[in-house]
């Protein structure tokens, strides 16, 4: 019996030993040499890898003008922090930047090799963005991701930022003005001042703007010919004053001054040539303070030193073969007559004539070859030009004539009959002058359909600006004869009134408002509308400016206004 019990326990021990071997138990010795057993997977857990966790944090976009748009030359930049929030080391990290589609004119660094990044380590990343002039309006979507050697990449971060095409500046001379210290004609060896208004009329900022003045020979500049203007925001204006002299060796009739403008890119500035005639009468030099109103980016107001009627002349593409004009501006009487002071000259008469000619051609449809301009006309030149126009009208079917005169007029002392005074005409002896009614009859009898006279002169003896003869101070009411039926006369003043200059506009007052009406209506008005306008505005403005009346007069052929009031000028 005992033997059986011993055999039972021996077998049981053997079975347990085999079962332990099947369960892959590993013996572990204790300090007391006792053998215990632990599962193998517990030992393997000691070698499990610690994982990194890359995160893109604190993204921000910085741009030069804080408009949150990528634009040209703004020093734009993407800023962010790359943080390892895991427990393991991120190995051989490369930070990559791409765009979903290629953006023309946009460039940036696409890869940053960062190496290993330890747990809790923060790596700041700055991505400068460069642009060129080909950048267009649109949007750029940047995709940023940190790539890790073992595949533990960050999540991709897409960021969309609008792009804006380059806003071009446009630097140009918008106006210029020649003046002298005392006013009057320019003279050799005496200072002349050129005032130039430079303006950025584009929609982008112009940087590093400069202006340089260039002359022909025998002209001498002042202290400098080079001006550093700096930056001009859209609409900004900079006025430059440039004194110079010319010597008696100067052999030409006008002085050209070339103004070279430059800006940062060398492509958004326009050069200009300013010209002044040797015999041209100029204003006295005066300080000018220009305070332009704040301008919106979408609207640029051009600065100016001259009258608005001299610019933006309306264009009429239609041309008429039957229209003929003679335009006379007699300004420089002192050149041809000794004993006269500069005050006897007619201020702005040449300017009046030149701008009126431009309106005839560009607005009223006259062809340039049939508009005859005579500046400072002598008696012979005036009579020849009048005969030429009359003869041309006789050979032109349905001819229409315009006769414009700006200069001195005088009445005959005995008959009060009005005369146009050539620059070489003697105010005391009207035998060399041109009788107004003779001009009316010669042009009116040329078989022209209509003849329009515009006379910026007075015939009372008061002169357009100053008396032609200093001793002649008596004003008379001129006797204006009735012209032929096909003729209408617009005269600058009535009775014994004086015809004034409009100094701030650099025109005769009558001529300025004549041009203003043509500009505002684009020439689309009737003779009646023009007559009403001139009578109203010239009379009112003369009282304001000159404290004296100047009421334009209108004389209708055969005293028949009904034929003219509804007839169109254009």
Description:
The chain has helices at residues 2-22, 40-44, 349-362, 379-394, 436-444, 509-521, 527-546; strands at residues 26-29, 35-38, 54-62, 76-84, 90-99, 106-108, 111-117, 122-131, 138-147, 157-163, 171-180, 184-185, 192-200, 206-214, 219-221, 226-232, 237-246, 254-262, 272-277, 281-284, 323-329, 371-375, 400-406, 409-411, 418-420, 434-435, 450-456, 487-491, 501-502, 507-508, 553-556. It is of the alpha+beta class and 570 residues long. The N and C termini lie far apart (149 Å). The protein folds into three domains: 54-163, Immunoglobulins (Immunoglobulin-like, Sandwich); 171-305, Sandwich (Immunoglobulin-like), CATH 2.60.40.10; 321-563, Rossmann fold, CATH 3.40.50. The protein has a six-stranded mixed β-sheet, with no helix packed on it. Strands 22-21-23-27-28-31 form a six-stranded mixed β-sheet, sandwiched between helices.
Give a short summary of the structure.
The chain has 570 residues and is an alpha+beta fold.
Give the secondary structure arrangement, pairings included.
Elements lengths: L1 H21 L3 E4 L5 E4 L1 H5 L9 E9 L13 E9 L5 E10 L6 E3 L2 E7 L4 E10 L6 E10 L9 E7 L7 E10 L3 E2 L6 E9 L5 E9 L4 E3 L4 E7 L4 E10 L7 E9 L9 E6 L3 E4 L38 E7 L19 H14 L8 E5 L3 H16 L5 E7 L2 E3 L6 E3 L13 E2 H9 L5 E7 L30 E5 L9 E2 L4 E2 H13 L5 H20 L6 E4 L14
Parallel strand pairs: 11-20, 21-22, 21-23, 23-27, 27-28
Antiparallel strand pairs: 1-2, 3-4, 4-8, 5-7, 5-9, 6-8, 9-10, 11-13, 12-20, 13-17, 14-16, 14-18, 15-17, 18-19, 24-25, 25-26, 28-31, 29-30
């Amino acid at each position: 019996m005992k033997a059986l019990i011993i055999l039972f326990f021996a077998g049981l021990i053997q079975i347990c030993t085999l079962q332990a071997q099947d369960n892959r138990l590993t013996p572990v010795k204790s300090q007391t040499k006792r053998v215990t057993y632990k599962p193998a997977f517990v030992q393997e857990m000691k070698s499990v890898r610690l994982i990194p966790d890359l995160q893109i944090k604190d993204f921000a976009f910085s741009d030069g003008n804080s408009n949150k748009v990528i634009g040209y030359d703004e020093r734009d930049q993407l800023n962010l922090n790359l943080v390892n929030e895991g427990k393991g080391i991120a190995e051989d990290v490369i930070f990559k930047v791409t765009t979903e589609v290629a953006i023309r004119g946009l460039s940036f660094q696409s890869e940053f090799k960062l190496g290993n990044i330890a747990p809790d380590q923060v790596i700041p990343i700055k991505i400068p963005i460069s642009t060129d002039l080909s950048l267009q309006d649109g949007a750029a979507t940047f995709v940023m991701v940190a790539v890790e050697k073992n595949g533990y990449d960050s999540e991709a971060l897409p960021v969309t930022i609008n792009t804006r095409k380059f806003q071009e500046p446009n630097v140009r001379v918008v106006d210029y003005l020649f003046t002298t210290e005392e006013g009057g004609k320019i003279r050799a060896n005496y200072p002349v001042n050129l005032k130039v208004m430079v303006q950025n009329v584009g929609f982008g900022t112009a940087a590093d703007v400069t202006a340089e003045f260039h002359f022909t020979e025998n002209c001498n500049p002042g202290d400098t010919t080079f001006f550093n203007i700096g930056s001009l925001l859209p609409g900004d204006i900079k006025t430059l004053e440039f004194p110079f002299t010319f010597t008696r060796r100067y052999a030409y009739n006008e002085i050209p001054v070339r103004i070279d403008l430059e800006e940062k890119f060398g492509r958004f500035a326009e050069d200009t040539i300013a010209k002044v005639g040797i015999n041209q009468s100029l204003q006295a030099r005066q300080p000018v303070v220009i305070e332009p109103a704040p301008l919106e980016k979408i609207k640029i107001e051009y600065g100016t030193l001259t009258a608005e009627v001299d610019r933006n002349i309306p264009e009429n593409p239609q041309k008429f073969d039957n229209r003929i004009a003679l335009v006379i501006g007699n300004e420089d009487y002192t050149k041809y007559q000794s004993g006269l002071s500069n005050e006897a000259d007619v201020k702005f008469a040449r300017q009046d004539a030149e701008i009126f000619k431009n309106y005839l051609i560009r607005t009223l449809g006259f062809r340039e070859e049939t508009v005859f301009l005579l500046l400072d006309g002598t008696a012979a030149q005036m009579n020849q030009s009048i005969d030429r126009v009359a003869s041309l009208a006789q050979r032109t079917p349905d001819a229409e004539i315009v006769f414009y005169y700006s200069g001195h007029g005088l009445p005959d002392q005995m008959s009060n009959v009005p005369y146009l005074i050539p620059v070489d005409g003697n105010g005391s002896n009207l035998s060399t002058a041109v009788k107004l009614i003779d001009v009316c009859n010669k042009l009116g009898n040329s078989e022209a359909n209509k003849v329009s006279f515009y006379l910026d002169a007075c015939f009372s003896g008061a002169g357009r600006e100053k008396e032609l003869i200093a001793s002649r101070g008596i004003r008379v009411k001129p006797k204006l004869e009735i012209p032929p039926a096909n003729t209408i006369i617009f005269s600058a003043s009535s009775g014994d009134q004086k015809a004034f200059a409009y100094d701030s506009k650099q025109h005769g007052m009558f001529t300025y408002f004549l041009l203003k009406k043509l500009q505002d209506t684009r020439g689309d008005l009737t003779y009646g509308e023009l007559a009403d306008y001139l009578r109203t505005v010239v009379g009112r403005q003369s009282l304001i400016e000159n404290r004296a009346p100047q009421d334009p007069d209108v004389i209708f052929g055969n005293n028949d206004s009904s034929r003219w009031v509804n007839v169109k000028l254009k």
